[in-house]
């Protein structure tokens, strides 16, 4: 149980294009979903928290207009990297939580984004 | 602000030997504590969690962790490691009160576990 699917797993695109990453909870409803970014051999850094039907809450230093988050349903959140540039290349991981703070987050397998 | 310290960047253990991965945290209230494991190029898998109650928690794959409030620690242990345990291990604390309403997890930098045959 508690499976989170993230798609695509790897994307390569040209600088200036926009890329959409999907995060789905397959067997539970996720009231809250999270987006993290991980640089090579480093830890995960929280980018934003999204609750279904409301605006995402971004961490300090994360550009809202560059990283658009939509949490349209209790099983789907999307992260769109707009006008991507090489410095946006990274490993992006989503997680979903079925309830409040006393529930663990379940993570997707991540998306490796490479901007040429 | 909350923080998590994993003092060991790399640990090498012989297969069959015991393992302990250290984790210390700084948190302004009673924390929720987690250990996750990450294989190369993969997402994170939850090994175990502590919310309240018994300070010794059992997880999957034979792992356990002990919450010690006086030491602000949540060390991960396994009595006998297997080659398949080689991976990156992350300790995390939550929720994260950043003032903006976000409540994600704060992760340590990770410990890379190497298993020697």
Care to describe what's here?
The complex is a heterodimer of chains A (116) and B (117). By secondary structure, chain A is mainly β. Helix content of chain A is 0%, strand content 52%. The mean pLDDT of chain A is 91. Helices cover 0% and strands 50% of the residues of chain B. Chain B is mainly β. In chain B, strands 2, 5, 6, 10, 11 and 12 form a six-stranded mixed sheet that branches. Chain B has a four-stranded antiparallel sheet with strand order 3-9-8-7, with no helix packed on it. Chain B has a two-stranded antiparallel sheet with strand order 1-4. Chain B has strands at 3-5, 10-14, 19-21, 24-26, 32-38, 44-50, 56-58, 64-68, 73-78, 87-94, 106-107, 111-116. Chain B contains no helices and twelve strands. The chains are: A mainly beta (116), B mainly beta (117). The A-B interface holds A 4, 6, 32, 34, 36, 42-46, 48-49, 57-60, 93, 95, 101-102, 104-110, 112 and B 32, 34, 36, 41-46, 49, 51, 90, 94-96, 98, 100-110.
Q: Give the number of DSSP strands of chain B.
A: 12
Nearest-integer average pLDDT of chain B: 90
Residue-averaged pLDDT of chain A, rounded? 91
Number of helices of chain A: 0
Largest interface: A-B, 28 and 27 residues
Beta strand % of chain A: over 45%
**Radius of gyration of chain A, taken over Cα atoms and rounded to an integer in Å:** 13 Å
Regions with little confidence, pLDDT below 50 for 5+ residues of chain B: 98-102
Hey, roughly how much beta strand do the residues of chain B contain? Answer: over 45%
Quaternary form: heterodimer
- Give the N-to-C terminal Cα separation of chain B: 41 Å
The portion of residues assigned to helices of chain B is under 10%
Structural class of chain B: mainly beta
**Overall strand count of chain A:** 11
Q: Can you write the helix and strand succession of chain A as a string?
A: EEEEEEEEEEE
Structural class, from helix and strand content of chain A? Answer: mainly beta
